[in-house]
Give the backbone structure.
Amino acid sequence: MIVRHATAPDVPAIEALVELSIATLLPADLDPAEVAASRHIMGVDRELIGDGTYLTVWSGDTLVACGGWSRRATLFGGDATAGRNSRPLDPKTEPARVRAMYTHPDYTRQGLGRLILTRCEAEAAAAGFTHVELAATRSGAHLYEAAGYEPVEDWYEPTPDGVGVPLTRMRKAVHSNLASN
């Protein structure tokens, strides 16, 4: 497995993984209308790639997992998601965001999500953040709880389809290893 930061040429592979992950993994926790509506609030965020905070995990030529963190206010969503906010966050008073975590269905439960999550937390802490926050799907909440995230609030995100997608805002404190050196 190779772990590296995403680049613009990776976008088609990321888009394909997002769609495969939505279609295959979300039906275990969402009804068909919620799965379809999820496509409005999930997807590739090229801003994360441009910021150098989006990670990819490759097995040969196959993208098997991806996810990143952000120093911007947007909590979730892809390029086309309504309500995006590129405002820079203040690391002293606001949490960094963990964003756009997807795993290939053939590679779930192999530690790849945890690997990306740990790297995101370390990078955010190194950038001066003391907390990270994310919007978890029902499918992803299990991973985040196991990694020490605590639920803050549950809500249904409205979509143009008129269907709300269930999400949970979760938060965790992170610490920079730089302070101990």
About this structure: The first helix runs from residue 11 to 25. The longest strand covers residues 62-70. The CA atoms of residues 114 and 143 lie 7 Å apart.
